[in-house]
Amino acid sequence: MDFYKGKPYMIRRSRGYAPLPFMVSTPWSGQVIAAGGELKNTFCIGVDNRFYPSPYVGDLEDLRTVKALKETMGRLETLLEVQPEVVVCDLHPKYNSAVVAEEIGLPVLKVQHHYAHILSCMSENDCEEKVIGVSFDGTGYGTDGTIWGGEILLADYQGFTRLGSIQPFVQVGGDISAKEGWRIAVSLIWQNTGSLQETLSTVQKLGLCTEQECKVLVTMAQRKINAVTSTSAGRLFDGVSAILGIRKASTFEGEASTALEFAAEEWRKSPQRNPETDNLAAPGNLADLAKNSEDAPENLRKFILNTGEIVRHLTESILAGEDPRKLACEFHEELAAQIIAACEEAKRQTGIRKAALSGGVFQNRLLLELVDEGLIKKASRF
């Protein structure tokens, strides 16, 4: 648990809080079991409009944890005296949680990872109306087969439409890129320059990796070898942390992103800071994709956040010798400005005025505060 604005800010329930249920006003009827995610797994049992989240189970890459998941599911079903009629799991076809769900023998409903984040935020706050869902997270399997993680969704209990995302980039190396943010940094720099020589020069100046490693990464990105298209906000944070020389790799989950947040917080408290001049040239820009979404109602237009330009600015500034703490602060402030601008664009297109912020990236209290207060300020003007 953390604290935000003087109130408890729950990160993950464990003993003492689970399995106390969430109660929602929507008159659901039926019994369901949801298998949860692959990492930091908890499952949930729904009985009509009451939802019982399980205690923490763990990461399902270990078969012993998979066994613990199955056993704990059985125990909680017995405790609550329920007989689920349907089982829900993540859309990712290779998650062990999805395998467990399939083995139960009930009808299976698969739900996209980031839509589930928004649904969890809605149910926790007993919100039934449509929302603009800002789902910023590590990685999740998207409906288009790419990796999602920095999404703007139009969502309600019946379904969702993907309105926008951060700018896609190539994520090379699979799961190892989550631990070695310099790989993401090289990919982001290459995507901005479009040139191997410029990328090599920049990477060398930043000391991100060897020349050979850089060449291999760019080749893999170009040929899509062990590389996927990604809009992961978590990996964007890791890449920026590496570019600024704060953390090039993580020894535990979230280390690079957390260090980036701490550096930004340190600058905000620094006497060197000048709030009037410490910002980017064009805050809150959105680059329109200029095409209609095929699955979007009412001819809604998809858009992307201009995160590539943020990376370009940060790279040029760190090479020019600017303080990495200052640039870390600028990154948070500009990303928050673009999220707010995205919500404004979504409101303009749909008329929806309520936003739901969810996903692991919003454990970053600085980003949460900037987006939260920025949206409230915008809302007060209407």
Q: What secondary-structure arrangement, pairings included, does this model have?
A:
Elements: E1 2-4, E2 7-9, E3 22-23, E4 31-34, E5 44-47, E6 50-53, H1 63-80, E7 86-90, H2 96-103, E8 108-111, H3 113-124, E9 131-141, E10 147-156, E11 159-166, E12 169-172, H4 181-193, H5 196-206, H6 211-223, E13 227-230, H7 233-243, H8 255-268, E14 286-292, E15 301-305, H9 307-319, H10 324-350, E16 355-358, H11 365-379
Parallel strand pairs: 4-7, 7-8, 9-16, 11-15
Antiparallel strand pairs: 1-2, 3-6, 4-5, 5-6, 9-10, 10-11, 12-13, 14-15
Helix pairs in contact: 4-5, 4-6, 4-7, 4-9, 5-6, 7-8, 8-10, 9-10, 10-11
Shape: globular
Beginning-to-end CA distance, first to last residue: 34 Å
Q: Strand pairing plus helix content: what structural class?
A: alpha/beta
What is the β-strand count? Answer: 16
The rounded Rg comes to 21 Å
Strand order of the largest sheet: 3-6-5-4-7-8
Relative strand content? 15-25%
The helix count comes to 11
Q: Uncertain regions: pLDDT < 50 for 5+ in a row?
A: 287-295
Can you give the helix content as a percent range? 40-55%
Order of SSEs, N→C? EEEEEEHEHEHEEEEHHHEHHEEHHEH
In round numbers, the mean pLDDT is 91
* Major β-sheet profile: 6 strands, mixed
What does this 3D model show about the protein?
This protein has 382 residues and is an alpha/beta fold. The chain contains eleven helices and 16 strands. It has helices at residues 63-80, 96-103, 113-124, 181-193, 196-206, 211-223, 233-243, 255-268, 307-319, 324-350, 365-379; strands at residues 2-4, 7-9, 22-23, 31-34, 44-47, 50-53, 86-90, 108-111, 131-141, 147-156, 159-166, 169-172, 227-230, 286-292, 301-305, 355-358. The strands form four sheets. The protein has a six-stranded mixed β-sheet. A hairpin with a 2-residue loop joins β1 and β2 (7-9). α4 (181-193) packs across α6 and α9 runs antiparallel to α10 (324-350). The longest helix has 27 residues, at 324-350. The two termini are 34 Å apart.
